[in-house]
């Protein structure tokens, strides 16, 4: 819905409740309620909700076409001045049904376009992304300065991934002392730009140093977030260690290792929201529990029909993923012969790199009735796939955290995954899933064959499903490290920036 539509004012909290809660602004390029391309949108929606019991957490998001036409009323509540090549824009407010408040940057020339948050319908990056996301970072600094025309002023900024990387930078360049946390969701995406963009973004000369945002002759939004934030987090403990090594550091391992040695980098694992509950999820055809998994057979039959698979007594494997090289999908394609020869079936849903989409279609053509592929994404189908599958395949070359493995576990589907990042932290090998060491076909095949053996042992399969479905993975069970970090920063114990 367009700006200007009225809606009833939200319920006012008591003064005592307001005083006990700190004002925290999440700065993100995705929010799954309104727009998402992957896990960032899920975390940006679920984590603020989990934290709202303790703090007044609100979200700042660009006003993409999908956001502006989402059907949610938008009230114009403020405006932001332009700066260098960053245009003026207005601030809209959306009150979601559960009370989460989202501030929207209303700038049609920057954000209201066909395509994704980052590129056009052919997946080509917008050439002015440096302007679009610098405007997001500067808006966060404006909010913290009280110059957004909004009465609510954050006491702490929490910025997420490279699109929000200039939020802590603008805070420091303008001499603002608001504490800032920067979370790395995927180090491989760094937001790199030519140094000639410096004038457009009003980047000071001191930022061009190697210990700030310079990266091999380019300007890195991600590195700026790391350099200027008071604390840097990433989305699992294992990934926090991995990114300080050459294999996973994407050229920033030394920079990150220095942060870690000073106690300024930590890994806090993601959680999932409580809608992922097999006993209550309304997306499912029927609900079930760890003690009674009969509903899984109903959903397995649905998946087989949905993906044109034959009736089969063997195990059902699924992939629900972005189709990108990081996810190790080439390994799954190479393993398809083994899956089919041993009586298994495979259903794949996702979208991504065109060449991987095409190769997945060809895989389904090779194994009609045994392999089914849907290029796209649908939330209801995804949940039913998790509910119906015996095993989820996640042979990721790296995985900062991963959410799919936790979704699958909650629905009694055991993940088969590489021991990396958050997969290593959330899967107990042989108990709640299967882990393998090397990003190789041999290592992957061994783990899948273990899954086949467990499938052939019903009492063991049932025991693993029960453990997986009851593992603690909801945000309310995992937010304490964030609460402690916020407390330290708000009390001024954050060390060097």
From TrEMBL:
This is Glycogen synthase. Pathway: Glycan biosynthesis; glycogen biosynthesis. Pfam families: Glyco_trans_1_4, Glyco_transf_5. The gene is glgA. One of its GO terms (molecular function) is alpha-1,4-glucan glucosyltransferase (UDP-glucose donor) activity. It comes from the Bacteria. InterPro entries: GS/SS, Starch_synth_cat_dom. One of its GO terms (biological process) is glycogen biosynthetic process. Residues 23-258 form the Starch synthase catalytic domain. Synthesizes alpha-1,4-glucan chains using ADP-glucose. It catalyses: [(1->4)-alpha-D-glucosyl](n) + ADP-alpha-D-glucose = [(1->4)-alpha-D-glucosyl](n+1) + ADP + H(+). Keywords: Glycogen biosynthesis, Glycosyltransferase, Transferase. ADP-alpha-D-glucose binds at residue 36. Its EC number is 2.4.1.21. Belongs to the glycosyltransferase 1 family. Bacterial/plant glycogen synthase subfamily. It comes from Azotobacter vinelandii (strain DJ / ATCC BAA-1303).
């Amino acid at each position: 819905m367009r700006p200007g539509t009225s809606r009833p004012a939200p319920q006012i909290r008591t003064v005592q409740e307001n005083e006990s809660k700190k004002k925290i602004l999440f700065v993100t390029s995705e929010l799954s309620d309104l727009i998402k391309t992957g896990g960032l949108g899920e975390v940006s929606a679920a984590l603020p909700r989990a934290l709202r019991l303790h703090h007044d957490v609100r979200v700042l998001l660009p006003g993409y076409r999908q956001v502006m036409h989402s059907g949610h009323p938008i009230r114009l509540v403020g405006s932001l001045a332009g700066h260098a090549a960053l245009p003026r824009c207005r601030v809209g407010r959306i009150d979601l049904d559960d009370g989460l408040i989202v501030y929207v940057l209303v700038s049609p020339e920057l954000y209201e376009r066909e395509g994704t948050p980052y590129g056009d319908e052919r997946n080509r990056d917008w050439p002015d992304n440096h302007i679009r996301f610098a405007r997001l970072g500067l808006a966060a600094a404006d909010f913290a300065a009280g110059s957004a025309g909004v009465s609510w002023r954050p006491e702490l900024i929490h910025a997420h991934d490279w699109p929000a990387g200039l939020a802590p930078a603008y805070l420091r360049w303008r001499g603002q002392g608001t504490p800032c946390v920067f979370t790395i969701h995927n180090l491989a995406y760094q937001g790199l730009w030519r140094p000639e963009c410096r004038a457009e973004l009003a980047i000071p000369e001191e930022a061009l140093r190697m210990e700030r945002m310079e990266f091999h002759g380019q300007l890195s939004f991600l590195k700026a977030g790391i350099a200027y934030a008071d604390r840097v987090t990433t989305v699992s403990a294992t990934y926090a260690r991995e990114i300080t090594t050459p294999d996973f550091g994407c050229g920033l391992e030394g920079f990150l290792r220095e942060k870690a040695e000073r106690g300024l980098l930590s890994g806090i694992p993601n959680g999932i929201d409580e809608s992922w509950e097999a006993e209550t999820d309304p997306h499912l055809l029927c609900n079930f529990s760890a003690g009674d998994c009969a509903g899984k057979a109903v959903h397995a039959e649905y998946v087989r029909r949905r993906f044109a698979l034959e009736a089969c007594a063997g195990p059902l494997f699924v992939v629900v993923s972005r189709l990108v090289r990081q996810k190790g999908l080439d390994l799954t394609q190479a393993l398809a012969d083994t899956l089919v020869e041993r009586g298994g079936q495979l259903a794949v849903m996702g979208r991504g790199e065109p060449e991987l989409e095409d190769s997945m279609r060809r895989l389904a053509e090779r194994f009609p009735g045994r392999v089914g592929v849907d290029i796209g994404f649908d939330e209801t189908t995804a949940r039913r796939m998790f509910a119906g599958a015996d095993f989820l395949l996640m042979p990721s070359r790296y995985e900062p955290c991963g959410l799919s493995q936790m979704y699958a576990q909650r629905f009694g589907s055991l993940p088969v995954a590489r021991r990396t990042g958050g997969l290593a932290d959330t899967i107990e090998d042989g108990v709640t899933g299967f882990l393998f060491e090397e990003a190789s076909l041999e290592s992957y095949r061994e783990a899948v064959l273990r899954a086949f053996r467990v499938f052939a042992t019903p009492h063991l399969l049932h025991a693993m499903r029960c453990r997986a479905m009851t593992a603690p993975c909801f945000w309310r069970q995992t937010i304490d490290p964030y609460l402690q970090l916020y407390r330290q920063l708000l009390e001024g114990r954050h060390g060097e920036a």
